[in-house]
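Hi team,

Below is the intake form for Putative choline dehydrogenase lipoprotein oxidoreductase from Methylibium petroleiphilum. Please confirm the fields before the structure is written into the shared record.

FORM ID: S-0412
PROTEIN: Putative choline dehydrogenase lipoprotein oxidoreductase
ORGANISM: Methylibium petroleiphilum
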Amino acid sequence: MNDDVTPTFDHVIIGGGTAGCLLANRLSADPAKRVLLLEAGGRDDYHWIHIPVGYLHCIGNPRTDWLYQTEPDPGLNGRSLRYPRGKVLGGCSSINGMIYMRGQSRDYDHWAAVTGDDGWRWDACLPVFKQHEDHHGGADEMHGAGGEWRVEKQRLRWDVLEAFALAAQQAGIPASADFNRGNNEGVGYFEVNQRAGWRWNTAKAFLRPTCYGRPNFEMWTGVQVTRLLIERGADGALRCTGCDVQTPHGPETVRASAEVLLSAGAVGSPQLLQLSGLGPAGLLQQYGIAVAQDLPGVGENLQDHLQIRAVFKLQGVPTLNTLSASWWGRARIGLEYAFKRSGPMSMAPSQLGAFTRSSPDHTWPNLEYHVQPLSLEAFGEPLHRFDAFTASVCNLNPTSRGAIRIRSPRFEDAPLIAPRYLSTEADRQVAADSLRVTRRIAAQPALAKYRPEEVKPGVQFQTDAELARLAGDIGTTIFHPVGTCRMGRDDDPQAVVDAQLRVRGVAGLRVVDASVMPTITSGNTNSPTLMIAEKAAQWIRADHGHRR
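The structure came back. Fields below:
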């Protein structure tokens, strides 16, 4: 940082998370281009980031999490939820569930239809996924090898998960060895972003060591961007020329001669746009912010996957509940990880997955299960003292839409987060039907020997209305917010960015993160965000004459 001269770079990247790390890698590959990466959190040197089970210590920890809370949600019967977002290098890839999931081909074909750009079709996106992938099975027509983004099998096995998988097959869900081939219907173990039993986040994959050795790359951590600099030229056109940054040493201004790339995530990106005068005019005027560009879609269209956690008590099979109850059990778990990098400490938060339909009316799988050999009352609370499994089910394609809105003109104040879960009749019906699918799986012969007993939500709840209300009582976020700066056609008044992620009406500014998704993908959202960043990097390099 220079106290005398305003630092100027070709590209300024705001946010060192999933998208930002890849952008930094790709754009700094040309030694003639100066690249600055700004990250509000610290470096990813906290040991719990790298031990897979360490997400338990990272979520809710101010060292790694923004500690957001939602507004009381009518669809959740007035409850407010913890809303984790990564505040550390690697962003959410440093604290998430590590599941490698692309979604379904129809997701991307729909994006192409919404934007009018066939570059978003599945057939066009698949090679981009493969470009940075390093799949344990090697390269084939569906997977890449040799890229930065490592994908491995999980290093564990549980009898109860094997039984659940067989029960799902008995209930009509086929077995699947690969959820990433365009149609993820089936049941099987998730593949994960790990390397030899360690979490593989985007900071390891794309920053270290590559970017750190480049003299044209600079990174500031522990700094927060307070606003974008939006200037109007003599011709009346708007351009983003840089940003103001709050650093530990005081305020700083940085300039971008080519582009500013906003990769602060589905919460942070709309917040910063609004603070900078880009957003719904009425909202900005409410807080005395001068309107640079009226963009009514900024902060709207929030979508997320709401998981409904069903818990079944078991007999005659060990689960993590009892295996970790004694000091000796915990010691064995620790020793297994220390010597083999396997076992419970290598576990992603969810190990077994299943994709199926909530009813025959659906052409594609519209439910995703995250199944775990454990149970607890709520995230962060102790495990139950009895053996059990949890089958969390989410509606992959919710029709409910929420919003992210500033609540003051101060960058320090967290924005208002209103997901509006279960606010449509269609979502309430899928919630009720999904609990019935869970019960149908639990009733199959493969699980009968363990005598499953439904603890949550409870067999006394049977009607659509009862189950929908119960979904509101026990549903929680599965940490997949997207859509708050969505892309679309030029004639779409709610579109914030165009098909190449350029902010409408403002030159020199793109949004590159999960907020640009017009609709949520049918699965976990981290790797689709990485694919979005890979495509954006290609456009940026082409637009600004990058070499190599």
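SUMMARY LINE: Residues 47-202+303-477 form a domain with the Glucose Oxidase; domain 3 fold (CATH 3.30.560.10).

Thanks, M.
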